[in-house]
Every structure is written in structure tokens, then in C-alpha cells.
Amino acid sequence: MPPLSVAHFVKDLDRHSGGPSVSVPALCRELCGIGETDVHLFTRPSSSPVAELESDRFHLHHLDGSRVSVEHALDEAWKGVPPESRVLHLHGLWDPMNYWASRYGRRNHIPVVWSIRGMLEPWALNHKRLKKRIGWHLYQWRSLRHAALLHATSPAEEESLRREGLSAVTSVVIPNGVAPPEPN
Fold it and tell me: Any alpha helices (H) in the chain, and if so which ranges?
């Protein structure tokens, strides 16, 4: 089997955006050290990004988040990569960029792993509640339902998946597994 090519999507890498801006690049760094895995990280430009990775198998892509930019970037990144070697790993909910990547995966028969990142916890759902309820019914629930795997970082997060009607989708609880950054 050819080497794996994993495309990660996260809203941004701004150090003020919270955990995924640190844990996703750390996950990418670890993946680059496994065999010949090719890692792509798709994100929006950030004003104060976390440190960038250096590896000949790591590729950082800045997108505007539109459907066209997501599809074009994935087509370019995976040019020549056999379909059975591709995996999409989406981090967080509610971002249109993740929705477009999920839709691309579904249409091209690429497995999608979706990390919830706490975004179904009650406190998170209450922030911009009406907007999230509309998004949930328009696209988010269906996108999650079609994921190959839902990743929760804690049992409470997995319970949030069940509470939102996603118990039929395969899920796994795996803590982030990366060391927190040193305090400044």
C-alpha cells in the first residue's frame, strides 16, 4: 500500500484561538514521523500563528475557506495520490471550510475523521445558539452523520455526540496525546 496522505482542516492557527491551534500542529508533527506519511494542514491565514512545522512531508496551505478554494487545494495536494491513500481529518465544527472538505470527501469516497473539539458541549452550543441551531439542521448534523469516524477527546465529549443523535456513527475517545506548550 502506498504511503498515507492526511489532510487536516482547522479554522486557524492563531495562538489566541484555543486548543486546536496548538494540538493540531502537534498532531501533524507526530504524523510526519510515522513512516512516509504525507501531511497537509489547511487553515486560514493567522495574525499570530503558532510555530510552523518543518518537514519535507508537511505542507501548510492557507485558504479563504470557500468551496472553490477547498476543492482546488485538495485536488492540487492530492495530485498523483491514489484514492485509497487519502484521509481527511477535520477539527472543530461550524466552519464552512470544514463543511466543504467533508462534502469533497463524501463525493470522492475519501474517509473523513471529524474531531469535535468540544464544540457540542452545552457552553459551546449556547454561544451564538440560534446560528448554530440553524447550521446544525442545514448541514452540520448530516456532515457528521456521514463521517467514517467521530473523534472525541473525552467521555463527556462522546456523550455530547450521543445527545445530539449521532450514536449510530462510529466514534472513539482518544485524548489529544500531545504535550501542552511551555508557558511564555
Answer: 20-32, 67-77, 96-107, 122-126, 129-135, 141-145, 155-163
Rg (CA), the chain: 16
pLDDT digit string (tens) for 95-106? Answer: 999 999 999 999
139-153 pLDDT, tens digit each: 999 999 999 999 998
DSSP sequence for 22-61: HHHHHHHHHHHTSTT-EEEEEEE--SSBPPPP--TTEEEE
Backbone angles phi, psi at 169, to 5 degrees: -85, 135
pTM for this one? 0.89
